[in-house]
Model the fold of this input.
Amino acid sequence: MLRKHFLKLSLTLLILVTSTHSLPAQTKSKIDLSTPDGQLMAMRKDTCSTVDGKTVIYTWHGEIYSRRRGEPDQKLFNVEGMNIRQCGTVKDKKRGTGFRTVSREIMLYLDPKTNEILDKWENPWLGREVNVIHVANDPVNFGQGFFARNKDGEPTIKWPDIVTEDSWYNQQTIPLFYHNVLQGDYQKYVGGAYHAAEMFTSFGSLDDLLNDNDSTKVRGGGWSRISDYLPWMEMQGREGVLYAHAMSWKVDEFEDLSVNLKNYINEREPTYKKPPPLDDQRPNQTSWTVFKNLLEGSKLPRGGH
Done:
């Protein structure tokens, strides 16, 4: 009788333990990557947060090189940057519910040897110093919104690109070719359009993407860019390009940024400690538009001499 009672108790405990260990597998994530809406939610969770108005900060560290025909590439700068953003829910009668991202960003040009912030730079092709204008783009907003479907109700999203047993991976290539605000009115005929390309990669833990947190944490990424010389370099049409290569990640708060970024923002650009408002409708700024505004504001001398 005692043996029978013991066997019954053991069987009960075995069932209980087995059931307990299987609970995590039975718990279904709120994000279903097999559906367009689930993919959009995953994209939002990594881009910013599933909570409207929550501030998220990305940072990146890397290098910029020059490339010209007939000479070795030169490492010109180290760079450290940050983008501070927030997301908000938007609705469209035909496309359904989506989200919009608003942000502003800083990127600093640093001495490639000392990693100090540069305010002047010795241009090796000019043989003289030029003033450095760091990236301070406000705003950098991501259009009017991301949606899982187009205006016909058809799914248009695929995010992330690859999902494995325990990880996710995504890549995006953005060719840029549009009107250059520093050139004339006849770019279609005589050239001078802004021409660049940006390449992004991101990857992370699948558990982190699918859990109940409002934003991903276990993730990394990369940023690469090919572009013409920066206007403040005063290259005056010389042949060649710049290419940048950097690694990126999220930080929990402003204090987690590099010393260079914190000091620069605190001392020179304190508005970059917060993202723009969710209803921000200003046109985006770039290094070219910022340079033009400085030039027209008589803060810089006219070039071309």
Summary: The chain has one domain: 33-296. Residues 33-296 form one domain. The first strand starts at residue 56 and ends at 68. The first helix runs from residue 2 to 26.
